[in-house]
Every structure is written in C-alpha cells, then in structure tokens.
Amino acid sequence: MSTQTPAIDIEKLRKVYTRGKEEVTAIQEISLQIPEGKFVSIVGPSGCGKSTFLHIVGGFIPKSTGTVRIRGKEVDKPGPDRGMMFQESALFPWKNVYDNVAWGLEVQGVEKAKRDEIVEHYLKLVHLWDFRNNLPSELSGGMKQRISLARVLAFNPDVLLMDEPFGALDAQTREKMQVELQRIWQESNKSVMFVTHDIDEAVFLSDIVVVFSGRPAVIKEIIEIDFARPRQLDVHKTQEFMDIRNHIWDLLHQEHSKSGEDEF
Amino acid sequence: MSTQTPAIDIEKLRKVYTRGKEEVTAIQEISLQIPEGKFVSIVGPSGCGKSTFLHIVGGFIPKSTGTVRIRGKEVDKPGPDRGMMFQESALFPWKNVYDNVAWGLEVQGVEKAKRDEIVEHYLKLVHLWDFRNNLPSELSGGMKQRISLARVLAFNPDVLLMDEPFGALDAQTREKMQVELQRIWQESNKSVMFVTHDIDEAVFLSDIVVVFSGRPAVIKEIIEIDFARPRQLDVHKTQEFMDIRNHIWDLLHQEHSKSGEDEF
Amino acid sequence: MKKGWNIIVQYQSLIWIVVAWEIIAFMQIMPERLFPSLGKVVVVAIDLISSGMLMENLPTTLFRVFAGFALAAVVGVPLGLLMSRSAKLNDVMQPMFSLGYPIPRVALYPILVFILGLGSASKVSLIFIECLFPIVLNTYYGATRVGKIYLWAGQNMGASSSQIFWRILLPATMPTIFTGLKIALPLAFIIAVLTEMIGSTIGMGYLLSYMSASLMQEKVLACVLLITLVGYLLNLLLQVIQRKYVFWQ
Amino acid sequence: SGQSAQPSSGAASGGQAAAGGNQPVEIRLGGGFSSEEPLWLMQVNPELTPHQGKSYTLNITQFRANADRLNAYQANQIDIASIGQGATLVAASQGIPLKVIASVIKETPGKGFNTPFMALKDSGINSMADVKGKVIGIPDFKSPTDMWARAAIRSAGMDPDKDVKYAIIPIPSMAEAVKSKKIDIGMFPQPFGATALKSGEFKEVFNAKTGVQADEDFLSMFVNPEFLKNNEQAVKDFLSDYVAALKYYNENGTEARKLLIEKQKVKADPDTYINLTDNNRSTDGKVDPEGWKAVQDILLQEKWLDKPVDLNTIIDMSYLPQ
Amino acid sequence: MDKRLHKIALIEVVVLLVLWQLLAMLQWIPEYLSSPAVIGKELLAMVMSGDLFSNAAASLYRSLLGFLLVAVVGIVLGIAAGYFKPIGVFFTPIVDVLNPVPKIALLPILMVWFGISDTTRVLLIFLTAFFPCFIATQDGVHGVKQVYVWAAQNMGASRIQILWKIILPAALPKIFDGLRVSLGLTFVMLFSSEMIGSSNGLGLGFMILTADMAGRTDLMFVSIFVIALLGFLFDRILLAVRARLLWWSENRG
Ligand SMILES: Nc1ncnc2c1ncn2[C@@H]1O[C@H](COP(=O)(O)OP(=O)(O)OP(=O)(O)O)[C@@H](O)[C@H]1O
Ligand SMILES: Nc1ncnc2c1ncn2[C@@H]1O[C@H](COP(=O)(O)OP(=O)(O)OP(=O)(O)O)[C@@H](O)[C@H]1O
Ligand SMILES: [Mg+2]
Ligand SMILES: [Mg+2]
C-alpha cells in the first residue's frame, strides 16, 4: 500500500438524525485526512457531534452523505481493524471481567495460552487483575472504563477510536493511563482518534488536535503538535504547551459564547 | 433544630459487598461531620468507594455497620431531602427531556404553571431548552448529564449528593456549570456532597475537601478551604489555590503508588 | 405502485402459503373433502357473513375474549409488578402458578360450568385464568429487570410507593408487559372458541362445531378463516397500542 | 359434491396384504367410548375370535366425537368406523363412500334399556304435558339425543323449536346440572342412567323411544368400500369373530363386563357397570333396514339431511356369517 | 432451588386439599367433584399396579418432545426473525395470522399427513406452545442494547458469533420468560393432543377422557393431579436451569 494513502480519509461527511419529521443536523460537513500512525484528538463543545463522528468512522451508524475511507477502503460496516472504546460502557454484563477482555481475542482465533497471556498483561496494566472474576455490575465507573480500555487494547486493532476513554478516572490514574497509551501507541504503528474534554490531555497525547465547532459540527481548526516523543509529564509545564493549550481554550471559548447566544 | 446538629453526621460507617462467599470491603470505616450549608467535595482513587459512600448517604443501599444521620435523623431510605445525581444516567428513557425534569416537581405536588416556570428556568440554565421534546436516547453524553443536573436542581432538595456530575462535560461547559452551581448553592442554604476527579474543581467549589484513601476507603485527610465567596474563576491562579491543589495531588499520589504496589 | 409492491413483499409469506395451499388443493394431493381450495372456502366465508351467521355469533365471542383478556390484564399486570416488589407475595404466588398452570384447564371446564353455569361467566373465567399466567410472568420478570437506578431516582425525588409503582415501574416494564399481552391475546381467542365448542349455543366456537357436525370441511375452514381474521385484527390493534406506549424503545 | 373420490388411497395402506399369502390384514377400527362392549371383548378375550391374528389383526382407536371419527375415516386413518346412525346417514348423503356392515347396539322400543330423559323426583314434572317451557339438556346438537328429544316433544303435540329450550351439557355433568336446577330434564345414557337411577333422586319423564318408535341401530359399523374390495376375506373373518363376541356378550353380559373391568378396558364404577341393564343388541349382527328408513325420514323432516340416501346401496349384510 | 418456596408450595397444596376434603365431607360440593381421599386411594392403587407410570411415561414422552421442538425452533427462529430484518418481515405475518387459529381445527389435515400417531400429537403441542417462545425471543432480541452488538462487530465477530455469543445471552432472560409459558402450555396441550384418539390407550390425557366418558371423576382427577405434578416438576427444573444460565443477571431466581 502506498504511503501516500492517508490512514483515515474523510470527505464532505455530513450527518442528519431524523425522528419522524424532525431533523437534527449533528455534523454539518467535515473533511479530514490523517496520515498513518498519527495520534489525533478531537475536542469540541458538549453535544457538538464528536461521538457521532466516531460512530460513523467506526462504521456503526450510517452517514448522510460524504465518504469515509480507512487505508483507502471505504467504511460501510464495523470491523476489527478499527477498535472502538465507547463513551458509555459496552462491557457484556453476562461475562466476568476476564472473559470480557478475552472475548475479542477468542473471536480473532487467538489460541488459549496466548490469549491468557495477553489478558493477564492488560488487566495488570489497568490494575484490575484482582477483579478478573467479578461481573461488570460489581465494578465502579472508573473500573469499568479501565476494563474497556484493556479490552480494546488487548485485541490490538490498527486504528483506535476512543470516546472519552479516561472521563471517569481520577487524575492520577488518568496520567498513568495516558503514559501507557502513549507507550503502546509508539511501540505499534497504530493510528488513534481520541475524543476528550481535557485540553491538556489532548495536547499532551496528540500529534494533531482537531477542534470542532458547536453543533452542527464543522472543523474550526487543526493544530499540529510536535513535542518530541516519548513525552514526559513535565512537558505540561513548558511555555509552548501552555500556549497551545490556551489557544485551543480560546477557540472553544469563542465557540461557546456563540452557541450560548444561539440557545438562549 | 439546634444549629449544633451537623447537617450530615456519619459515624463509623463500614460497607462490605458480598457475592456468594466472596467479600469486597468497599469502605473500611468512615466518620465525618458536616455542618449545615457546607459544600463538601470527596476525592479519591478510582474504585475506592466514593459512589458507595454517596449511595449509602442517599439511603439507596444498606450499610454494613455504623450510622448515618441527616439533620439528626437516621437515614434508612431515600428521600426528597437528599437530591442525588448519579454517576450513570438515571433519566427515564420513556419520558422526554421536559417531562424528566418536571417529574420530580409533579411528584412533589407543584402546580402546573409553577412547574412549567421552574422547568423552563433550569433547562435554559443548562442550555438545553431547545431539546425539551427529545428523548434521552437522542442526546449526547454531556447533554444527558446536564439534564440530570437540571432535574436535581429543579426539585430543590436540602442536601445535594452529586457523583461526578460534570465528568462528561467539556471544560467550558464545565466552568459555566460550576459557576451556576456555586450561585445556586449560595442563594439557598443547601449542603452539598460532591464527588469529583478534578482536583481543581473540588478546590474551587468546596468549603471542605475530603480525601479518601484507596479501597477499602478511610479518610486520609480533611482540608478546609476558605477563599471568599463568591469565588471567581481567576482564583485558580492564586498561589494559595495552587498550594492546596498540589497538596491534595500529593496525597492522592501517595495513595496511588501504594495501591499500585498492592495490586501488582 | 411502490407501496403496493412493498405490501406484497411484506406479506409474501402469506402469499406463498396461499399459493402452496391452492397447488395442493388443485393437484388433489390431499383428499379434496379435507382440503378444499381456498377459493371455495372464501365463498363459504362470505356466505357466512352475508347470511348474518357471523354477526349472530361474533359479538358474543368478542365480548368473552375482551372481558377475559381485559380482566387478566387488569389483574395480572399489577400482580406481576407487586410480585417483583414483594418477596412475600412472590413466594406465595410462584408455586401457585407453577402448580396451577400446567393443569389442563379445559378438562376442568365442567367444574367451572358447575360453579358458574354455561353462559359467558364460565368462559370468561377460563379465559381469564388462561391469560393470567403469561401476563403475570412477563410482567414479573420484566419488572425485576428494571434498572434499580430508575427506582432510586424516583424514591429520591420523594415519589410515594404508589407513584413509583404506577409511574416508574409500570412504564419501565411496558415493553415486557406487551410481550405478555401479545402472547395472551391469541390464547384468549383460542380458549373462547374451544369452550364454545364444548357447550354453547352461540359464538364462533359453536359455529365451528356446528359446521364440523355437518361434515363439510370447507365450512369448517371458512369458520377458521373468519376466526383467524378477527384474531389477526385484534392482534393488530394491540400492536398499534404498543407502538403508542413503548415508542421509546 | 357428487364426486366421491375419497377415501380411495386405501389400497396403499389397508389392502396391501390381500393378495399375499398368510400375512394377516390389519383392520384399523375407529370407535368411541361407550356401548362397544362386543368390540372390546374381541380385544381382551382372544378365545372368542379364532381368526384374529391369522387372517386379520384388530387395531381399535377411540375417538371422542363423531366428527373426529369421520375426519379420521376421510383421512384414511381408519378402515372401519363404529359410529352413530345419524352420522352415517349424513356422511353417506354427502357422498362419502361407505358400506354399513353390522349393527353394534340398538334402541328398540320396549326391549332392553331405553335411554331415559329424567327430571328430579320433586320437580313437579310428571308427564309430557309438564315439559312445556322447560330446559332439556342434551350433549350435542344434531345428535341422536337431539332427535329423540325433538321427536318426543312432537309426539306430545308441541313444537320442538318453540315450546322447549335446549342446553348443551357434557354427559358426565348431566346429573349435577339437573340437581342444581340449571336444566330441568337431562338425558342419561348408560352407565350414567344406572347411576342416576340408583341414587333415587331422578325419575324418567320420557325416553328415546317416546317419539322414535322404530328399531334403531343406534351404533353401527361401516367399512371403506375400497378396503372391503381388497380384503373381503379378512372382513368376513372379522365379522364372524365379531358376531361370536356379540353372541357371547348377549348371553353372558355380567361376566363379560366383569372381564372388561378387570382388563381395564372400561373405567366405570364396577358395581354399577357390571350389573347394568344394557340396550337391546342384534343377535346376528344385522341391522334393521326398516329402522334406518324411519330414522332417515325423521332426519329429512328435521332438515338435518338434504337429500335421502338410497339405503340399499349403503347397507350390505352379506359379509356377516349367514 | 429455593427451599422456602417449596415449603410455601407444600402449604398451599395441603390447605387446598384439606379445604376440598372438608367441603366434600360436608357434601357442600357435588359428588361429581370427588374428594382428595378418594383420589388419593385411586392414585395409590394406580401407583401400585404400575399403570400410572406407563401412562405418565407415554405422556411425558410426547410433551417433552414437543417442548424440545418448541425450544429449539422457537429460539432459533425467534432470534433469526429478531436479528435479520428480512426474516422478521417474512415470519411476522405468518405468526400473527396463525397464532389465533384454534390449532385443533388443523387436526384433520395433520391426520392425513401423519396419521393418528405421536407425530400428530407432538405437532399439535408444538403448534400451540411455539408462539410464546417465538414472540418472547423476538422481543428479547429487539431489546438487546445496540452497543453490545456494536462492540462485538467491532471485535470482528462473525454473524454467527454475534447471534450465539451476544444476542442469545443478552436476550436469554426474556427467552426464559417465553419458555416458561410454553412449558406450561405443553402440559395443557398434552391433554388436548391425546383427546384426538389413542390407539394404544396410554397417556394421562387419554386417561382423563376414558374416565370422564365413564363418569369416573376420581380417576379423572388422578390424571389431572399427575399432570399438574409433572408440570410443576418440570417448571422447577426450568427455573433451576434458568438460575444456572442467568447467574449474572440481577434477577436470577
Ligand atoms: N454491587 C457491587 N457488588 C460488589 N462489589 C461492588 C459493587 N459495587 C461496587 N463494588 C466494589 O466496591 C468498590 C468501590 O466502588 P465504588 O463504585 O464506590 O467506587 P468509586 O469510588 O465510586 O469509583 P469511581 O471513581 O471509579 O466511580 C469497588 O472495588 C467495587 O468493585
Ligand atoms: N440517536 C439520536 N437521535 C437523534 N439525535 C441524536 C442522536 N444521537 C445524537 N443526537 C444528537 O446529535 C448531536 C451530537 O451528539 P453526539 O453524541 O455526537 O455529541 P458529542 O459531541 O459526543 O457530545 P458529548 O461531548 O456530550 O458526548 C446532539 O445534538 C444530539 O442531540
Ligand atoms: Mg459524546
Ligand atoms: Mg463512582
């Protein structure tokens, strides 16, 4: 495959939800090309269409118009090349933690011994090996999120789609997970599309931050971030970091005052 | 009622979950007295027992041992004096946004005209008046959280129990909601118990921050914060704010390295 | 045009069945007396309608179906919901259903006749008993699966037990309740017809047994066709109501 | 529906052994639950039936209603049906091919048991005149019992459609229905008649013969003509055994019934059953063509039969032992 | 299984029997309704002679075969119709139309094809008990959270895997609701299916019929009692299986 082909290629994507006669335009029009192996974050106001965007890229819901290509192939259904971590818990309530993580591997035909090894590795990574026999209903919100992370990492997709994966984690756990995610991403050649509300997190992790406008979403700005890798936590304290962060903040702030006016 | 009586009085609270023969101690032992009208935040590592704690104070789940009193009265079941905002969405899927918010008022016997007024007020406050006819399933994660906020504020309880109420909001919306919550709390004489992972948020909003240890939870430290009210957003930039914030960060960090060792 | 085609696609299974039936009838694969062509059956059915036989018998049967079914729904739904809330009530009721439901109630019908007479009372009671089980069970299990967070939210807003019962538990259980109703309604219909076949002088079941005594299968099938049609329409009505009340799923 | 193609595929199932050598022919007989004692005896007492197992085997299936039996017959699931006279006539007039070959039980005026219609002793119903305006319980419309009741009403100069009412009551609950006054008069075939009489609470108001004065072959057997053609000898042998069993039963009623109870063939209360007075039965298995004609006339009069059946074509006593 | 429940069931039955016996002894109910003592005596006699077992075995064979068929066909078809829209569209009209048909009316036709045989009886049971299972399964599939299916698709699960490993377990609670109703109906139909005539004379339904025709209500009640008992037993077995398979669910018992 030519290296010229973008890993993710989105053209004139548009999404309108309909219910009866009512229509809600979630995505106005978005075009975006992401080269292979990049870490991309998406930030934007609540309800602007980020989850919708990820669901379309994941192939879960149909788009209204436009095209979405992953490594040159048009997306029309979900596939294991794109691992999705959903905003709400998608853990199977009838499987315990261990089996939830192992299932994707089983489906992929990974043999038992290998599977056990991988599951153990990732459950330890998210510090929940002790809870492997528990049911999802017996876990706290943050624990569920970490299991979902382990599940998607374990089955090792080329493209990671993550919808606020660390939203329910405390600051420390969050930092640990960020560091781990960066490491895993660097060691592999994954492309990541990452939705977050935490601007610091977006800047710290990403090669590219895409800022969405308020609903209906268009791209407000695309910001490239080129701190050296691997990034250490203290990069937060550099002036450059602060500048980018404040810039994004301002962008969103504009968006907000605007949409605030709209809605009142 | 004597002003001496704490609004919330918790003594030697302990909670053990059992499934079959297995036991998980969620809360080791917690005692805590909160005077009337205080804003209290609880911070602690993921899975330490914060939600469990709030659920017990709300009267939803039984405690193992100890006592919980609200304004001198022992808690044994849920009641409208303690408004709870749950970590996961508790919006009724069969009611539209408007009816979800109006329901609590209807149950309280608030008459139609008054009810309409209150619902409109709070739906506008969370910027979702336009979505009043939508079903919860048609909202984004952050929108659902804002509706839940509107719902609990609308029915105006004496004690607010909030479990990561702003976790799914973007930074700007979050700030707006923080400011609004502070205003509403100040104007009324509510006591608030607020679980959050955002240390800044905890420090900015609270009179008292309670730091929980890792599971099983005990209280690691209680920190009083006495910035003048109403606090403006720029309080974040003061040195005192930074100091408190860093102190809490360190406390949690210790907790983390400890639990990290435990679990590996 | 397009709409017409869609309807054909939607109901193609029935069309296939009719076609298969006609082929079997035409080729006389089955004895002709037992397997008349549907054309004949329809002619007889129309005759039953135009001669007033249908209108003489249908209202009685419908009344019995409605009465028994409605009674079962009015009793069964609250009972199922209550059982999900009260372990005591559940303990008392569950064995009654386990033990009582498998009893061949039609065999016990004469006892009901002894107590309630041959009129509608005994038939309505049997329909009631028959429908109760699926309605109660589906309601009960549905209610136990309602996320407790909804109940918590209701309690939290100070809803009384009855408000929680009627305004949270009931709507949250609605999809499953309708499953139960969908299962029960045809049962009501079948039992009405069966009991009318045993001892009655009016009703669709009477008409059916009367026709079968005259040994003409096309008359019997015409009755079955009419019964089926009415049953189908009732079911349709239920689905319309369901769409109205569980729009949110 | 003059075309009478059915049942015709009989050659496939019943008749296959006919041409062959010693293989016995299976006779599939559909009967009911009452009054077929001679047939049941054939099952429990092989001594009476020398041909059974040699030239034929007997497979009896019991059905609840006439319609079930006739359906099974049309579906070619039975070769011989033991069934009521009225049902036979209706079936024949509909063009269902059949040959009546033997009588099973009769309602003969003044001979043997005649099925009574009874009321409570203290009901005040003493004669036919008192029946006017009363409710009569019968098990089924258009059945022999219906015919008996209507004929009796007519014979007393009343209009069976206007002067009385009918209620459909399953026979087992007839006694209760009368006792609880849901109906005024009930019909009691054996063994219910015997039980009811024994209780001393009931008295007869009229009986099956009050209106229908003929010698009725209340139950008779008909055979599928196709089957008959292919298995003439087997049917003859079967009928010869049947008449032997019939004879034995006529002569040794009490012992025969005792045997049936012992062999669990009959589940009735033993005391009542063993000692009951049975209806009249044919001595040689033959039906009475005069009786058939009389019944057919009644059926025509009631319009239960559209057109008369040529009785000569359906009754054939030539297979019975001469 | 819940011991408490058994105790309560036992108490209920005993209370009912005592009441019945009392009413019978006081002659407040007609002789026609028999009495527990008489029935008990008869039951004992039938146990001793072994008649009961041969009859019960014949009936059980038919009803359990029917139920098995219902479970397999009902669940498979219900899942297929719930998950694959075209299959659902195809089957919905048939089910809606056939459901209210009094199945007994189809008997003559079944008889031509299958004779007066166990096949006909089992089919009759199947035709009645199929619908609750099918409807509940289909509704259960419709109620499965979309995000579970998404997650599975996302991990590259095949359709078969999704049906078998996601849809089935997620719909299982509702499937069991349907199965329980179907099981009950199976035992009810056991009577009706044997009513069509029996050639070897074995079966509890047939026993009811013979006894009823001969005015032996005590015998009839014995059969009814045994059917109820068997129904209860299998209902409990079904509940135990349910508790086993739904151990993860909040309402497992
Ligand atoms: N229903 C339950 N059964 C068994 N254990 C449970 C149950 N609910 C919670 N726990 C356990 O109790 C502990 C505390 O859970 P809790 O939900 O209170 O944590 P938390 O502090 O709210 O975490 P988070 O910040 O991730 O939401 C966890 O270890 C969890 O596994
Ligand atoms: N199923 C649906 N039907 C109708 N409208 C929908 C549906 N899902 C989402 N929407 C609408 O689409 C818009 C975008 O929703 P989306 O979930 O993509 O937002 P988001 O950016 O992920 O927000 P958040 O940060 O709060 O999660 C919202 O206005 C929402 O109301
Ligand atoms: Mg979202
Ligand atoms: Mg929590």
TrEMBL record, chains A, B:
Domain (ABC transporter): residue spans on this chain: 8-239
Single GO MF descriptor: ATP binding
PROSITE patterns reported in the protein's UniProt record: ABC_TRANSPORTER_1, ABC_TRANSPORTER_2
Entries under InterPro entries matching the protein: AAA+_ATPase, ABC_transporter-like_ATP-bd, ABC_transporter-like_CS, ABC_transporter_ATP-bind, P-loop_NTPase
Keywords from the named record: ATP-binding, Nucleotide-binding, Transport
Domain of life: Bacteria
Segments passing through the bilayer: none
This protein's name: ABC transporter ATP-binding protein
Automatic annotation (TrEMBL), chain C:
Transmembrane segments: 6-26, 61-84, 96-118, 124-143, 164-181, 187-208, 220-241
Record-annotated ABC transmembrane type-1 domain positions: 58-238
Main location, first listed in the record: membrane
Sorted UniProt keywords: Cell membrane, Membrane, Transmembrane, Transmembrane helix, Transport
Cellular localisation: Cell membrane
Membrane topology: Multi-pass membrane protein
GO CC annotations on file: plasma membrane
Superkingdom of source: Bacteria
Cleaved signal peptide residues: none
The keyword Cell membrane belongs to this UniProt entry's keyword annotation: yes
Entry-linked Gene3D superfamilies: MetI-like
Gene Ontology biological-process entries: transmembrane transport
Coiled coil (residue ranges): none
Keyword Membrane: yes
Family classification: Belongs to the binding-protein-dependent transport system permease family.
PANTHER family per the UniProt record, alphabetical: ABC TRANSPORTER PERMEASE PROTEIN MJ0413-RELATED (PTHR30151:SF0), ALKANE SULFONATE ABC TRANSPORTER-RELATED, MEMBRANE SUBUNIT (PTHR30151)
Name of the molecule in the record: ABC transporter permease
Biological source species: Brevibacillus nitrificans
Lineage of origin: Bacteria, Bacillati, Bacillota, Bacilli, Bacillales
TrEMBL record, chain E:
Domain ABC transmembrane type-1 residues, every copy: 60-238
One GO-annotated biological process of the protein: transmembrane transport
Coiled-coil regions listed in the entry: none
UniProt entry tagged with the keyword Transmembrane helix: yes
Recorded superkingdom: Bacteria
Topology versus the membrane: Multi-pass membrane protein
Subcellular location: Cell membrane
Family: Belongs to the binding-protein-dependent transport system permease family.
Name assigned to this protein: ABC transporter permease
Originating organism: Brevibacillus nitrificans
